[in-house]
Design a protein that fits this description.
By secondary structure, the protein is α+β, with helices and mostly antiparallel strands. Helix content is 13%, strand content 25%. The protein has a single domain, classed as 3-methyladenine DNA Glycosylase, Chain A (Roll), CATH 3.10.300. The structure holds a DNA duplex. This is Putative 3-methyladenine DNA glycosylase.
Length: 204
DNA sequence: ATCATGATCTGC
DNA sequence: CAGATCATGATC
């Protein structure tokens, strides 16, 4: 399936389809190992675009392949790839990946284990050298700083799914996807503000 | 287990 | 216009 087809679809289909694919930015190449889907105003209370279009979330309402880069917890940047048609604010959050090329560049002076370089959405974004400047750029037009490699995907093994990390609303929607057994996948943390775990919630 | 740190949103 | 919230990571 082509990238354009994937990004034209709903986020819960695009998120697992992006696993195992390669992203490249600023001389660093990553193999994506963990993603999360967020629907826009279509009934997903965990989405930044749940209520309405704002200055911050405007990129989520653009066409498929648009980057939505947001600032979180006063210090971190995180990257989403918008999917679905214009005005449908759905997106896929890139949560973790493995550095496969540009290891020296990826380090950026940090002394962490290789597997931790892009383990978690903020570290992934920093490792790729992405920040606010990339917000609103499109990865399909080849002009922005981030490239998602198109073409057929190599086999990824078992894909697993479970609830999304750290969200207080919609905490049981199983829209987090990861490659089973990969050591670069980030640890799951339920939001302390989320309601108690429902007995019908999906197990990981 | 707790803190760091600031943009954004919401309710007053 | 102020206070709560936050799709987290590093360090204690």
């Amino acid at each position: 399936m082509s990238l354009a087809e994937i990004l034209n679809g709903p986020p819960e289909d695009a998120a697992p389809a992006i696993l195992g694919r390669y992203v490249r930015a600023n001389g660093v190449t990553l193999r994506i190992t963990e993603t999360e889907a967020y629907a826009g105003t279509a009934g997903d209370p965990a989405s930044h675009a749940y209520r309405r279009r704002t200055v911050r979330n405007a990129s989520m309402f653009e066409g498929p392949g648009t980057l939505y880069v947001y600032f979180s917890y006063g210090m971190h940047w995180c990257v989403n790839i918008t999917c679905g048609p214009v005005d449908v604010a759905a997106a896929v959050l890139l949560r973790a990946g493995r550095v496969v090329d540009g290891l020296e560049e990826a380090r950026r002076g940090r002394t962490v284990k290789d597997r931790d370089l892009a383990r978690g959405p903020a570290r992934l974004t920093r490792t790729l050298g992405i920040d606010r400047e990339a917000d609103g750029t499109n990865l399909l037009d080849g002009k922005g700083p981030l490239i998602l490699v198109d073409g057929p995907r190599e086999p990824v093994g078992t894909i697993r799914r479970g609830p999304r990390t750290g969200v207080s609303q919609g905490a049981d929607t199983p829209w987090r996807f990861w490659i089973d057994g990969d050591e670069t996948v980030s640890p799951y943390r339920r939001s302390p503000r989320a309601p108690a775990i429902r007995n019908d919630a999906l197990r990981e």
